[in-house]
Every structure is written in structure tokens, then in C-alpha cells.
């Protein structure tokens, strides 16, 4: 069997090979995200955009409007 002439490497070939080698060397299997158990009464600060009319509705009742929003969200979530 005769040796076939080797095709010259192009820049794209070299780049593709280097990227593939880098990806193999740096790719890690993601660990499973541990499930966290929600602790009742512990609150987490988040940023949430709510329509002005909805916010006004909950704030009309005075202090405790965040608790009322939490109660409404729990009810909507079926809890």
C-alpha cells in the first residue's frame, strides 16, 4: 500500500484541534445541585418587578403588605 501524501495543516485545522483538546481538558461533569429544604419563616431578599396597581393594592392595607403578598403567592403556588 503506497503512502499517500499528507495534507498540509491549515490554521483552521490547528485551531479546531487546539479547541477540542482544551475542551476535553477543561470540561467537568456538573455536580448534582443539592436540594435545599425551605425553612419556614426564613426570608430571602430578592428583586421582583410588580405592576404598580398590584403593589398599590397590597400596600393599601398598611403595614404587613409584604406578608399579604407572600400569602397570595403561597395560595397561587398551592401551599
Task: Write structural notes for this entry.
The chain is mainly alpha-helical and 79 residues long. The protein has a domain at 48-78. Helix content is 46%, strand content 0%. It has three helices and no strands. The termini are far apart. This is BrnA antitoxin of type II toxin-antitoxin system. Pfam families: BrnA_antitoxin. It comes from Bradyrhizobium pachyrhizi.
Strand segment count: 0
Approximately what portion of the residues adopt beta-strand conformation?
under 5%
| Tally of DSSP helical segments | 3
Mean pLDDT: 81
Radius of gyration: 29 Å
The 3D shape can be described as: elongated
Give the helix/strand class. Answer: mainly alpha
Biggest β-sheet, characterized? none
- How is the quaternary structure best described? single chain
N-C termini distance: 74 Å
Helical residue percent band: 40-55%
The helix/strand order is HHH
Stretches with pLDDT under 50, minimum 5 residues? none
Summarize the SSE layout with pairings:
Elements: H1 11-26, H2 52-59, H3 65-76
Structure characteristics:
single chain; 79 residues; mainly alpha; elongated
TL;DR?
The chain has a domain of 31 residues. The chain is elongated. By secondary structure, it is an all-alpha fold.
